[in-house]
Every structure is written in structure tokens, then in C-alpha cells.
């Protein structure tokens, strides 16, 4: 099975769709977007500096790249681009906020798919650390954005004790007798995702949790399924 | 539904096969029996029908071949048996495909229906399990569904035969359904574009196009001469162009759109109850899955199995068969007539002597093995048909995980207690190669089959309870140790544990009996020739005095390492042909009083862990390849002698009262 056909073509639509939006933003916002863009390229293994520079000029403006280099956030060596220590921390932070915002809009506020991009793009700058943590808790410490890219974990994600307050949580945080509706399934393990989907576990499906140990036993439609912990961690449900 | 090119084509009438397809555990095998009047192993464990079963049926005076495929959730395969189904469906042009679905689970059923529809072959949808659905207040509307999908839809209750005549009638005149196009316009366009590149002669172009869009390149290998390099390039271009519109892999997008369509279909054609009723079935189910009570149930089931197979069959029944029936009546009778009618000492000895074909092989096969194995298969059949095995899988999952497996390996492991050869064949239900290899190793090493168990338990009964405990401990710890190590050493992945748990069902007696008979027949065909061969070999070796030489040669191994009397070399030698027969040899030696308790224990541990029998070795070759099979056997052989030797040493030093 071809998981990621030709990564270069598999562009995040944000790269193009929000192109116009980007240019209207304040400069600090554009720095953020620049970091976001580089992060996104690097996580897909595109480390060549020149194409990234071109993309950034096209999507944001001509100054951002130089500004990032000047303030010591990125390094260019043998035409290979990488973050500096500080750059990486700051970038992880902004990427995390952006992707949390995407999740929030899609899972909880149920904003139409087409609008998620542009709204998240503005919202991300309004989130301070405290709000970020609250959102993360609310969403059950999601690990993937709606596009299937990893959300850098924050401090709150290390101890997942507080999932009781969340609206969305992964199946492994449900207790026997609780029910939830699937909001999304982590897409990284492809065969597993396929299997779950063909068993009827798709966004919108109602799941009753019967048992959580030694395996998770859930009821989907009229079928009982047993799942191991690792699989349960990949299914995010909205509490009912 | 978007624009729909109606194509109720008349069929070319040279197709003569009828394919049964469906999700696992929906009653396909029962329907198969109704259609063909033939028997096929029917069971309640998802994925039991691994091999393809075929039979014939008459439709309108013509004979058709009916093919039963392993249950599958989707036409994009994940395990070996799903691949089998895909290949059968993709490479045949059938007279008709019958999809059997569980009408309690419309979404899953319809998901497969949509995929099958894309094949462009005649399709009939059977909604089975009508009785169970009714009990739960789930009501499908076959008529509405039939109108929307434009295929015949028939409700059935396979176990009572309800709806089967209607199904048979429909088979006379199947027709090609219209293809429904439910994907987004750009995807539909890409499907059309790919289809137009494919040659006219290819069947199910739409299905192939969809698979290619999903990135399943394996269809290309099904039609190697069609997919030339330039065609593949053109197709890749279309696929890549479409992928650019989406941020996530296309196969997910396609699947999501299909499932959305399924959802809307379900809402239009199914009624669900407002209030759930809790049946006794649910309650019982909870108990058997409970972390504590589930374990208790598992132990109870094992104990029941011991009582029935180990105590009743291997004790009472065998005693009657071997000592009374054969010992008092049949053997003396046959011996008498052979001595009188057959000339020549050689042939007389060959038939009824100490190593005689009759006195040794036949008596052993029919007097000892038959009762034990019959009892085991009966018991296993009940476990299977009642739906208990998947629950046992849930209980055992965490333990199996330590050995690099998951709960699914319960089926081959438990079946291995009956016959390791048969069990090795069912390792196909496991999803990754690594799991199949580990299971094969463990089956070969540490799972004694029922025949062997019967003999061994009989001998252990003769020494103190410590003996049984030590034997059990060594077996289980070898299994966990070897499993753990192989899961570390062997490359490859583990699959994730996702298992369907069907409701408890009352096993049908007729089905149970037929199934047991089929397995017995299979077993005897495998075992009896081996007994005969082993006996003949022994006889020859004995007659020409070669046996003494072998005993002398193996002296260092048997006497020094294991500390056993030299006669046991003979038993180990037979063990190469059949482990259980080897155990029986030990039994005879022990009966003659030639072994101390310590020696009995050491010999039993060694023979239990000993090399696979010839049949299993052959199956290992078939399933795992010659090299792997040889390595496994060699490893197991060395391991068995090491374990035996170590135990011998320990027992010499430690004062354990045996
Ligand atoms: N209650 C009920 N049980 C059924 C029906 N059809 C099949 N079964 C049972 O369901 C189990 C699975 O059937 P099987 O034919 O092995 O399913 P397969 O895996 O699709 O071949 C068996 O125990 C059957 O006896 C039905 O219509 N009603
Ligand atoms: Zn895939
Ligand atoms: Zn802004
Ligand atoms: Zn922004
Ligand atoms: Zn995203
Ligand atoms: Zn968090
Ligand atoms: Zn066997």
C-alpha cells in the first residue's frame, strides 16, 4: 500500500490557500508562519534550503527568511536547512498552537472543513500558554492535526491525569459503561486504520465501552470488538 | 447517487463459478452447505475457513462450481486469507457473486457490497442472521435496499434454511448491476480516466481503477501482461494529479467517501431499536471477558478439557479399547489366525510380533489414539462453535504479547493441543509473518498434541505430583522463554490486536459431529501411515539387529547426557516419525519397570520438547519454507536434549521426592 505517494506533491493545502492571508498579517505573525512553514517542510524530510526559501517568498514575503536567519532561529549549511536550539523550541510552540487550533475548530466547534485553515491561521496568535494548555486538555491531548501531522507535545501532555475534564479523549481514557462518538483516528498506522474503518469505526460512529482490562472491549453497531491498549490510544472520541 | 450508467448487460454464459464472499463469521459456510449439500468446516472463530472450499451445485440443469472464500472486511487485503479472497474475486469471471452479510451489522456489510459492486459482476446480497437481528429489534428493509442498489437482496436465516429456496431461484438468472458512482466528481473523473486506459478485455475495470487510486499496486501483479511500464506511468500520473488535491492519502479519502455513502444507505434502509435490551447472552459474555472471572473461566475450561480428554478418554475409554477390546478379544483373535494362516516366521512377526504392524501400529492407532483424539476434536468443536475461543483470546492476549504474539494466536495454540500439524496450517490467520513464524516455533517446541498428552499424562500419573508440576513448569517456561527471545531476535512487525467477539451461540449437534468426523478423517490419514512406517522401520531394524547398534551409538546422548536406559534410544528414534509414538515407546519401557521415576520425568520432558513429527515437518516446510523448517527442527532438537540434560543434572543434585 502506498502510504504517502510522492511526499513532494502531498502538499498541505494551507501552503497555497492561505497564501493571500499571510501577506496581510503583522510582521511577528509572518515570522511565526515562516517557522511553521519550515517545520512542515522539515517534518516531511525536505531539508534543501533553496526550495524552502522559494516557497516562503511565494507564500509569505521576501524578508522573513533573512529575518529568521538573522535572529539565529535557523541555520543553513551546505544548502541544508535546520533549526537552531532556540528556533526549534519556538517553532514547536507555534506549530503546536496552530495544530491545536485546527483540532479545536474541527472537532469541537465543528467549523466546516474549508474554513478551518483560515480561522486557525488567525487564532493561533491569540493563544497564550494558559489557553493552549486548556485547549490541549479539552481535546484530550491530541497527537495529530486533522491533516495527519504530529502535534508537538506540551508540558500538559506528559501527565494525562486530567482527561476527565476533556470533551475529546482517546478511547484508553474511557471507563466501562461510558460512550462516545468517534471524532478521529490517528492515521499514522495505516493498516490498523484500515482495519478499524472497515469494522465500522469511523468519525461519527457511536462506541460503547464495556471493559478496559485486560483488553478494551467495545461495542460498535451490534458487534463486540476487543482492542489492545495501543489501538485504543489511537481512537479519539467525543464524550457523550 | 450521481449520474449512473445503467448497464444491465446480458451475460456471456460461459462463466461457471459462483463465488461466496462476506465478512468473517456471517454464516457463509452454512449457506455453502445449503447450496452444495457438501460439508465444510463451519465455525465461530473469525477466520477459520482458511483454505478455499469448493463444491458443485445445479442451477437450471447446469452444473456450477461454488467457491467459498475466507471472510474478509475489505477487498484491500491485510492478512493472508483476505488476500486469498481478493485474488479469487479479482481473477475469476464468475457466473455470480453471492455476498453473505450479517444483517445485525449493516455498515460493514454494505461497505463490502459497494466494493463488490465495483467489480461489475452479477451480485446477490444475502442478509443472514435474521433471527438474531429480530431478537435485538434490528429490522432491515431488503426491498428498499434492492431498489437503491439495483441488485437482489434476500433475507435469510441460514441455520433453519429460511430464504435459501429464494436464493437458489435467483441464481438461475443473475444480472450485472449498474455501477453506482458515489465518489466526489474529481475522483470519479480519475476513475474514468484510468478505466479508459485499461484494455477492453479486462473485467472489473472500475474496481481495478479504484484499487490503483488507493495505491494498491498488487493488482498489477495479477495482470502482469496488461500493466506495461508505459501504462503504469500514465496511471501514476493520474493518481499523483488527484493526490495533489488532497492532503491525506487517497486510499483514506476513498474509504471515507465510501463509508459516508454506506452511512446514508444504512439510514435509509435499516431500523434500529430505541432501547437496548440486555440478553442472557450479553451477561454471559461479560463474565467470560471479565479480567478475573475470564481467567477463572479459562482455567475451568482447561480443566474440563482435561477431565474429558485426559481423564475420561485417555483413561476410561483407552483402558476399555486397549486392554479389553484389543487386549482380550481382537488381538488374540488376529494373532491366532495369522499364526495359523500366514506361512513364514518373518511375515508372522511383521504382522503380529513384538514390532508387528497389527500388534503395535493398528492397536496403537485405533485403541489408544482414536478415543483421545476424537474426544479432543469434539471438545474443540464445542469451544469453536459456541464462540468461546475469541473470549479466550482476550483473556490470553497479555500473556501472548510477552511472546511476541497477540490473543489471536490462541486458535492455533489450542488446536495444537489436538494436532500440531493442523494447527500449523491455521497460523495463516495471523497477520504478520513474524507472528506466524513464532507460532510455528512454539507449536513445534512446546505444545504436545492430544495423543502425546494422553500417553504422557498416563505416565506422569505413575509418579508423584511433583513430576507433573515440574513437567508443566518446564513446558510453560520454555514456551515463554523461547517466545520472548524469538520476538526479540526475529525481524518483522507484530500486528495489533483487533478481534471481533461474536455472540455466544448454541453449537449445532449435526455440525459438531460432521466437523469432528472431518477432522478425524484428516488426522487418521496423516497419522496411520506414519505409525505403519515407524513400526515397519523398527521391525526391520530389530530383525536385522541394527537396533542394538543404534542404541550403542546413541549411548553418550541417551545414557550420559540424559541418564536414561539405552532402550529409550529406540523411543526417541521413533519420535522422529511421531512424537506421540515415541512417548508410547517410553510408556512401554516404563511399564517393563526399566526406568526410575527420575528417568521417567527426564525422558518425558525430552520427548515433549522433541522434534516435530514428519507430517508437521512437511507442513512447516510448506508454510515456512525449507530453510526455516530445518532451522526450527534443529533448534528444537538441541533445545530438547539440553533441557532434558539440565533437568537430569538438577534432579541428581536436588532432593526432590518423585
Ligand atoms: N442464529 C443464527 N446463527 C447462524 C446463522 N447462520 C450461521 N449461523 C451460525 O454462525 C456461526 C458462523 O457461521 P459460519 O458459516 O462459520 O460463518 P462464516 O465464517 O461466514 O463461514 C456458526 O456457528 C453458524 O451456526 C443464522 O442465520 N442464524
Ligand atoms: Zn492504505
Ligand atoms: Zn495575523
Ligand atoms: Zn497565523
Ligand atoms: Zn494540519
Ligand atoms: Zn496536552
Ligand atoms: Zn498431528
Write the layout of secondary structure elements.
The complex is a heterodimer of chains A (240) and B (658).
Chain A: H1 14-17, H2 19-23, H3 27-43, H4 49-59, H5 63-70, E1 74-77, E2 80-83, H6 85-108, H7 113-123, H8 129-138, H9 155-158, E3 168-170, E4 179-185, H10 190-198, E5 206-211, E6 216-220, E7 223-227, H11 229-232, E8 235-239
Antiparallel strand pairs in A: 1-2, 3-8, 4-5, 4-8, 5-6, 6-7
Helix pairs in contact in A: 3-5, 3-6, 6-7
Chain B: E1 17-22, H1 28-36, E2 53-59, E3 62-68, H2 80-91, E4 96-102, H3 106-117, E5 123-128, H4 130-135, E6 139-140, H5 142-149, E7 153-155, H6 164-170, H7 185-197, H8 205-213, H9 218-222, H10 229-243, H11 250-269, E8 270-271, H12 280-289, H13 293-341, H14 345-352, H15 357-386, H16 388-402, H17 410-416, H18 420-425, H19 433-446, H20 450-460, H21 465-489, E9 498-501, H22 509-543, H23 546-553, H24 555-561, H25 568-575, H26 579-591, H27 597-609, H28 614-624, H29 626-653
Parallel strand pairs in B: 1-3, 1-4, 4-5, 5-7
Antiparallel strand pairs in B: 2-3, 6-8
Helix pairs in contact in B: 3-11, 7-8, 7-10, 13-15, 13-20, 15-22, 19-21, 20-26, 20-27, 21-27, 25-26, 26-27, 27-29, 28-29
The complex binds guanosine-5'-diphosphate (GDP) and zinc ion (6 copies).
Amino acid at each position: 500500500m502506498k502510504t504517502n505517494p510522492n511526499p513532494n506533491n502531498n502538499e498541505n493545502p494551507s501552503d497555497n490557500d492561505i497564501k493571500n492571508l499571510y501577506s496581510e498579517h503583522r510582521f511577528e505573525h509572518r515570522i511565526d508562519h515562516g517557522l511553521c512553514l519550515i517545520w512542515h517542510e522539515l517534518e516531511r524530510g525536505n531539508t534543501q534550503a533553496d526550495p524552502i526559501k522559494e516557497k516562503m517568498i511565494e507564500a509569505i514575503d521576501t524578508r522573513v527568511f533573512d529575518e529568521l536567519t538573522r535572529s539565529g532561529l535557523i541555520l543553513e549549511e551546505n544548502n541544508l536547512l535546520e533549526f537552531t536550539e532556540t528556533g526549534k523550541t519556538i517553532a514547536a510552540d507555534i506549530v503546536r498552537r496552530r495544530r491545536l487550533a485546527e483540532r479545536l475548530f474541527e472537532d469541537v466547534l465543528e467549523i466546516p472543513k474549508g474554513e478551518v485553515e483560515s480561522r486557525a491561521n488567525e487564532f493561533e496568535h491569540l493563544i497564550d500558554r494558559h489557553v493552549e494548555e486548556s485547549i490541549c486538555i479539552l481535546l484530550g491531548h491530541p497527537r495529530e492535526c486533522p491533516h495527519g501531522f504530529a502535534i508537538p507535545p506540551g508540558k500538559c501532555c506528559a501527565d494525562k491525569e486530567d482527561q476527565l475534564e476533556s470533551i475529546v479523549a482517546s478511547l484508553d481514557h474511557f471507563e466501562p459503561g461510558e460512550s462516545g462518538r468517534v471524532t478521529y483516528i490517528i492515521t499514522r498506522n495505516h493498516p490498523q486504520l484500515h482495519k478499524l474503518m472497515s469494522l465500522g469505526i469511523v468519525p461519527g460512529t457511536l462506541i460503547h465501552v464495556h471493559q478496559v482490562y485486560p483488553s478494551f472491549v467495545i461495542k460498535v453497531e451490534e458487534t463486540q470488538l476487543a482492542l489492545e491498549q495501543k489501538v485504543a490510544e489511537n481512537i479519539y472520541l467525543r464524550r457523550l | 447517487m450521481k449520474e449512473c450508467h445503467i448497464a444491465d448487460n446480458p451475460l456471456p454464459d460461459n462463466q461457471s463459478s459462483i463465488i461466496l464472499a462476506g465478512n468473517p463469521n456471517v454464516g457463509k459456510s452454512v449457506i455453502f452447505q445449503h447450496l452444495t449439500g457438501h460439508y465444510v468446516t463451519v465455525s465461530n472463530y473469525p477466520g477459520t475457513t482458511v483454505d478455499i472450499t469448493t463444491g458443485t451445485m445445479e442451477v437450471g440443469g447446469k452444473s456450477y462450481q461454488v467457491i467459498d472464500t475466507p471472510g474478509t472486511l475489505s477487498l484491500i487485503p491485510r492478512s493472508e486469507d483476505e488476500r486469498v479472497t481478493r485474488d479469487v474475486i479479482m481473477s475469476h469471471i464468475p457466473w455470480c457473486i453471492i455476498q453473505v452479510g450479517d444483517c445485525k451489522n449493516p455498515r460493514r456489510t454494505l461497505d463490502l457490497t459497494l466494493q463488490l459492486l465495483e467489480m461489475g459482476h452479477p451480485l446477490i446480497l444475502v442478509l443472514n442472521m435474521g433471527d438474531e437481528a429480530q431478537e435485538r429489534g434490528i429490522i432491515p428493509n431488503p426491498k428498499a435496499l434492492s431498489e437503491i442498489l439495483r441488485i437482489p437482496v434476500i433475507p435469510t436465516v441460514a441455520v433453519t434454511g429460511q430464504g435459501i429456496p429464494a436464493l437458489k431461484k435467483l441464481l438461475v438468472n443473475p444480472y450485472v448491476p449498474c455501477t453506482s458512482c458515489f465518489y466526489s466528481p474529481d475522483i470519479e473523473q480519475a476513475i474514468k480516466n484510468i478505466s479508459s486506459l485499461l484494455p477492453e478485455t479486462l473485467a472489473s475495470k472500475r474496481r481495478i481503477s479504484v484499487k490503483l487510486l488507493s495505491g494498491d499496486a498488487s493488482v498489477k501483479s495479477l495482470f502482469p501482461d496488461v500493466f506495461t511500464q508505459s501504462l503504469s506511468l500514465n496511471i501514476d500520473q493520474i493518481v499523483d494529479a488527484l493526490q495533489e488535491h488532497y492532503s491525506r492519502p487517497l486510499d483514506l479519502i476513498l474509504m471515507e467517501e465510501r463509508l459516508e455513502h454506506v452511512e446514508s444507505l444504512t439510514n435509509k434502509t435499516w431500523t434500529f431499536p430505541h432501547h437496548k435490551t440486555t440478553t442472557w447472552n450479553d451477561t454471559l459474555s461479560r463474565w467470560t471477558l471479565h479480567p478475573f472471572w475470564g481467567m477463572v473461566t479459562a482455567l475451568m475450561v482447561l480443566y474440563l478439557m482435561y477431565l474429558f480428554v485426559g481423564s475420561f478418554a485417555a483413561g476410561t475409554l483407552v483402558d476399555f479399547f486397549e486392554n479389553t477390546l484389543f487386549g482380550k478379544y481382537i488381538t488374540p483373535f488376529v494373532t491366532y489366525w495369522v499364526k495359523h494362516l500366514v506361512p513364514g516366521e518373518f511375515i508372522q512377526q511383521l504382522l503380529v510380533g513384538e514390532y508387528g504392524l497389527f500388534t503395535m501400529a493398528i492397536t496403537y492407532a485405533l485403541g489408544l489414539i482414536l478415543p483421545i483424539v476424537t474426544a479432543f476434536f469434539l471438545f474443540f468443536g464445542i469451544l469453536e462453535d459456541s464462540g468461546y475461543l475469541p473470549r479466550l483470546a482476550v483473556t490470553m492476549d497479555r500473556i501472548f504479547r510477552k511472546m511476541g504474539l497477540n490473543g489471536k494466536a490462541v486458535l492455533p495454540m489450542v488446536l495444537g493441543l489436538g494436532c500440531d500439524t493442523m494447527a500449523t496450517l491455521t497460523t495463516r490467520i495471523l497477520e504478520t509473518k513474524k507472528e506466524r513464524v513464532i507460532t510455528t516455533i512454539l507449536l513445534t517446541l512446546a505444545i504436545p498434541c492430544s495423543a502425546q498428552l494422553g500417553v504422557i499424562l498416563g505416565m506422569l500419573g505413575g509418579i508423584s505430583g511433583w513430576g507433573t508440576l515440574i513437567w508443566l513448569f518446564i513446558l510453560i517456561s520454555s514456551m515463554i522463554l523461547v517466545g520472548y527471545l524469538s520476538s526479540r531476535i526475529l525481524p518483522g512487525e507484530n500486528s495489533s490486536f483487533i478481534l471481533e467477539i461474536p455472540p455466544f451461540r448454541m453449537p449445532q449437534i449435526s455440525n459438531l459431529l460432521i466437523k469432528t468426523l472431518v477432522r478425524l478423517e484428516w488426522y487418521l490419514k496423516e497419522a496411520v501411515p506414519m505409525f505403519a512406517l515407524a513400526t515397519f522401520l523398527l521391525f526391520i531394524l530389530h530383525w536385522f539387529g541394527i537396533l542394538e547398534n543404534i542404541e550403542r551409538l546413541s549411548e553418550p546422548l541417551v545414557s550420559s547426557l540424559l541418564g536414561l536406559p539405552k532402550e529409550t534410544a529406540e523411543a526417541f528414534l521413533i519420535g522422529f516419525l511421531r512424537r506421540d509414538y515415541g512417548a508410547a515407546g517410553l510408556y512401554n519401557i516404563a511399564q517393563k519397570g526399566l526406568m526410575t521415576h527420575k528417568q521417567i520425568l527426564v525422558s518425558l520432558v525430552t520427548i515433549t520438547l522433541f522434534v516435530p513429527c514428519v507430517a508437521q515437518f512437511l507442513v512447516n516446510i510448506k508454510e515456512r519454507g525449507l530453510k526455516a523448517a530445518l532451522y526450527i527442527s534443529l533448534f528444537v532438537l538441541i533445545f530438547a536434549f539440553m533441557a532434558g540434560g539440565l533437568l537430569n543434572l538438577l534432579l541428581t543434585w536436588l532432593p526432590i521426592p518423585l
